[in-house]
Each structure stands twice: as structure tokens, then as C-alpha cells.
Here is the input.
Amino acid sequence: MRTLLCLSLVILLVSCATPVQNLTPVYESQMDKAITPQADYKIQIGDQLEIKFFYNSELNESVVVRPDGRITMPLLGEISVYGMTPLQLENLLKKHYGSRLSYPELSVIVRSFNMQQVFVDGQVGKPGAFPLLGFMTVMQSISQAGGLKDDARKKEILIIRRGEQGKPIVLKVNLSKAITGEDMSQNIYLAPFDIVYVPKSTIGNVNQFVDSYLRKNIPVGAGLGMSIPFP
Here is the structure.
């Protein structure tokens, strides 16, 4: 699992144009970078879609978006769906089925987001990479990773996020306030490929720690030419 995590970090944080040794400083407590759930999710490769017809249940399909961004539908054949919102796909299918069905009413549901992951490391039961299923919070990701260890520092959990041009950005959250219900805003939603790091002790210099952490997990010069595509 450690090997998987390190490999995933390589793919995530190494810019195709910037070697690891040239990492720029990260920034502490940028809570304005926290995300909120969005209704306009765009379909990605590897997503599992469930398509249900209200009046023609025999056409119901559960399909996975292929690497070419297409799915295959009864009566229609191959359709390109990559980058569409579920609503846009619904409207497209209604239009195509309109000439074939009397009542082409249907719904598109994204059942799983297979190509999106988050990574949890540090003082948790099972560090590793986990699927980003729907809208996941920090607490939910830690639960997926086996929960906090007794010596975890809940007041200083780091979220390492890829910013513009692949440069790392860090959010520092006080999860103890969310656990007690004092401040639920600390339990932020995660973005695809976020790294959640749970420290054991106080981190004095966040910039220095993250720089050291990334260098330790990513071999210098490795992964050049590799990058994670974002929607």
C-alpha cells in the first residue's frame, strides 16, 4: 500500500515542466481554497453510469465510460459522453431516442467515480489511496483509511492539493473542532487527488514539512512528462 501511495504521489504532483527539486513554497491555512459540492459534475473516463428509462425498462443500462470517452446504448450504438454533465447526457439521449420511443423519458445517475481518488497518510489505521465516491469530506476519507490513531494530532491535519500549474497548495484544518461539533466548516470537502496527511506531532514550519514530505515520497527527477488530467 505504501508503494501504491508513493506511485500515486508521483503521478499527482510532478509537473511535466517542473522537476521536483524546484517545488515552489506552499501556503498555510488557505481556507478560501476549500471546495463546496457542485451540481455541474462532468462525466469522466471510468465513471459508472446507470441509465434508467421510465417507460421502457428493458433498455435500462449500467455502463462504464470507456478510455475513449464513449458508452454503448441499445438502439443507438456508441455515444461520446466524456465531459458532459449528467443533465446534458439525459437531454442528448432523449433527443436520440425521441424518434424511436413514444415516451423517451429517462434519467442518468453517476454511481461511482472510479478515476478519481484521494490519498490518506500519516497517523491513520490504513494509509493508502481511496476512491472519491461522490462528495467526500476529510472525516469520511480518514474513516475510509481506518480512522485516527491514538497519537494523531487532530488539530493540525494537512490537505495537500495540486494548485495552478501543478504547484502544491496546503490547507491546514482543525478536525477536533469538527469532531466535537464546534466548527463543522473545518470538515471540508476534498478535491480529486487531494492528499490528507495526519501528523503525529506539531508541525512547526508547514512549508518546510511539505517540501520534505514530497521529496521523501517522490524520487528527484522521477515522473517527468507525467501529469494528472483535471476536468
